[in-house]
C-alpha cells in the first residue's frame, strides 16, 4: 500500500514540474510584435489632381512624399484605395537606406535586401520579420489624406 501511495505522489510531482516548465516556455518564447520603426505624427493632404502627384492618378502608380520617419511611399491600389508606408526598413531602422519601388507592386530595401509587397506591406523575402509601417489613408475623390491619429 505504501508503494502505491508513494508512486501516486511522485506521479503528481512529475506532472506539476512539467506544467511549470510548459508555462515557462510559453512566456519565455514570446516574440517582440512591435514594429521597430518609431511612431511619429503624420497628417498629410495630397491633391491627386495636381501635376506634382500625376503618377497617383493611375492604378499601381506610386509617389514618394515627405513625412513620417524616412519619407512615405504612397501606392494606388485601386480606383479608390491607396496604401501609405514609411520608407524606413523595419529590419534595420538605423540604416540610411530607404525603401524604393523595384517594380510595382514590389518595394525593396537595398541595405538588407528585404522585399515587400506594396498591396499590404508584407515581407516577400529577406531578413525582416516585420512588415512596412503602414499609415491610414482616406480618399474623397480629389484629396488623399495620409494620417496615423
Structure description:
The chain folds into two domains: about 1-30; about 45-145, Rieske Iron-sulfur Protein (3-layer Sandwich). The chain is α+β, with helices and mostly antiparallel strands. The longest helix is centred in the first third of the chain and has 27 residues, at about 1-30. The radius of gyration is 24 Å and the shape is elongated. It contains one helix and ten strands. It has one helix at about 1-30; strands at about 45, 60-65, 70-75, 80-85, 100-105, 105-110, 115, 125, 135-140, 145. About 20% of the residues lie in helices and about 30% in strands. A six-stranded antiparallel β-sheet has the order 1-10-9-4-3-2, with no helix packed on it. It has a four-stranded antiparallel β-sheet with strand order 5-6-7-8, with no helix packed on it.
Amino acid at each position: 500500500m505504501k508503494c502505491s501511495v508513494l508512486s501516486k505522489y511522485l506521479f503528481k510531482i512529475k506532472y506539476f514540474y512539467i506544467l511549470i516548465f510548459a508555462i515557462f516556455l510559453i512566456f519565455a518564447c514570446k516574440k517582440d510584435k512591435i514594429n521597430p520603426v518609431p511612431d511619429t505624427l503624420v497628417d498629410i493632404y495630397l491633391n491627386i489632381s495636381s501635376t506634382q502627384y500625376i503618377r497617383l492618378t493611375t492604378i499601381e502608380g506610386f509617389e514618394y512624399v515627405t513625412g513620417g520617419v524616412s519619407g512615405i511611399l504612397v501606392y494606388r491600389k485601386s480606383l479608390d484605395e491607396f496604401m501609405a508606408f514609411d520608407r524606413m526598413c523595419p529590419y534595420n531602422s538605423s540604416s540610411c537606406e530607404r525603401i524604393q519601388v523595384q517594380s510595382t507592386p514590389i518595394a525593396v530595401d537595398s541595405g538588407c535586401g528585404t522585399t515587400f509587397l506594396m498591396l499590404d506591406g508584407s515581407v516577400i523575402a529577406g531578413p525582416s520579420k516585420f512588415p512596412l509601417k503602414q499609415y491610414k489613408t482616406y480618399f474623397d475623390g480629389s484629396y488623399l489624406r495620409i494620417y496615423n491619429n
